Amino acid sequence: MTFQLPDWVTFPEDDWIQITPEEAGLDPGKFDAFIESLQVNGASFGGEEHSGDNYGAVITRGGYLVHAWGDRHYRHQTASVGKAFTWAVLGFAVEDGLIDPDEPIHTSWTGEGQLSHPHKDLTHGHHQKLTWRHLIGPKHESLHYGGFPMEVGIRWSEKRTGLEEAVAQPGVVEWANWTGDPFYDCYAHVEPGTQGHYSSAGFWRLGQALTHVWNRDIKDVLQERLFDRIGIPAERWKWLTGSYIREQKYLYPTIPDSYTYLDPPFEIDGIPVRSGPGWVVISASDFARFGHLNATQGIWKGEQVIDPAWLRGHSGGNKSGSSGESKYLTAMGVVTTEGIDYKHATETKSFLPEEFFVGPVRVPGT
């Protein structure tokens, strides 16, 4: 059954129309007090510099802009948030009959003669049972189940994972065949489905496999199938390639050599492999469009542009993210912004307290 949108929901054209909290069906006093209580500023994760207005965040409801911080048009790389876009690209491949998400990936791409070591081939070892769904993980979790153990190269060489201690996963090393070389160790170490953890390494392999399956640039796939339809022009965003990311020793200035696990192929039949783990350059204003699409469960201007099974929000380690929920039709887009606590992968709970909502959106003159 198709999700039924309230008749007060709209969709932005070239830009968002801004309305007041009262027009957005929010208690203006409670909302204003909430906004004033926050200390929102540019994030500085990993030594990134986002002083001044070199950050952005927006709140929308029902397709209208309600509040913004910083520069909502500021564009910067958003760490892992591109995982949400890789989900969509995978979903379109399923929709087109290119893959069965529960079949082993090696039935579509083996990687033989293209991956850097034979033990990485998808016909070898634990990879024989590795499915597409193992690498993306459940929709409402950030965990993946492909058996790829690492998140950051330099941390892996130190026998730990995660971008910072707060998100480190020390237990991972106990089940992995650790050599200390992240490049060599980028493969499925255990039977897929047996260990759940957060791994960008697995998403890198997913990006390679999807590039082979589509036989075209997956950025172009996403642009044509989704972004053109929700009003994000191709020139307004970038999806960085894996080869570019691997060359950025100081992508995060205080965490050098973060992504040394990224391995060939960086091109497949001349097609660049985009960074499935993330690293999309985009603005908060455009991220909020994707969040609004999540809130409407894939509906845009009356058309089901994507099956909601393949939609999800996501957050990045450098304090970026996109979220949208369907109960109150709120959405957020966040780029390198500290001071906002929000749920990035939920469809039913808004980051705004429930008591803030007093009615539907009511825009004068409509």
List the helices and strands and how they pair.
Blueprint: H1 28-37, E1 41-42, E2 56-61, E3 64-70, E4 75-77, H2 82-95, H3 132-136, H4 153-157, H5 172-175, H6 200-214, H7 218-230, E5 238-239, H8 242-247, E6 267-268, E7 271-272, E8 280-283, H9 284-295, E9 299-300, E10 303-304, E11 314-316, E12 320-325, E13 330-335, E14 337-338
Antiparallel strand pairs: 1-14, 2-3, 2-13, 4-8, 5-8, 6-7, 9-10, 11-12, 12-13
Helix pairs in contact: 2-6, 2-7
Walk me through the structure:
This protein has 366 residues and is of the alpha+beta class. The model has no long low-confidence stretch (mean pLDDT 93). α2 (82-95) runs parallel beside α6 and α2 (82-95) crosses α7 (218-230). It folds into 2 domains: 28-78 and 279-356, no CATH class; 82-278, no CATH class. The protein has helices at residues 28-37, 82-95, 132-136, 153-157, 172-175, 200-214, 218-230, 242-247, 284-295; strands at residues 41-42, 56-61, 64-70, 75-77, 238-239, 267-268, 271-272, 280-283, 299-300, 303-304, 314-316, 320-325, 330-335, 337-338. Strands 3-2-13-12-11 form a 5-stranded antiparallel beta sheet. The protein has a 3-stranded antiparallel beta sheet with strand order 4-8-5. A hairpin with a 4-residue loop joins β12 (320-325) and β13. The chain starts with 27 loop residues before the first helix and ends in a 28-residue tail after the last strand. It contains 9 helices and 14 strands. The radius of gyration is 20 Å and the shape is globular.
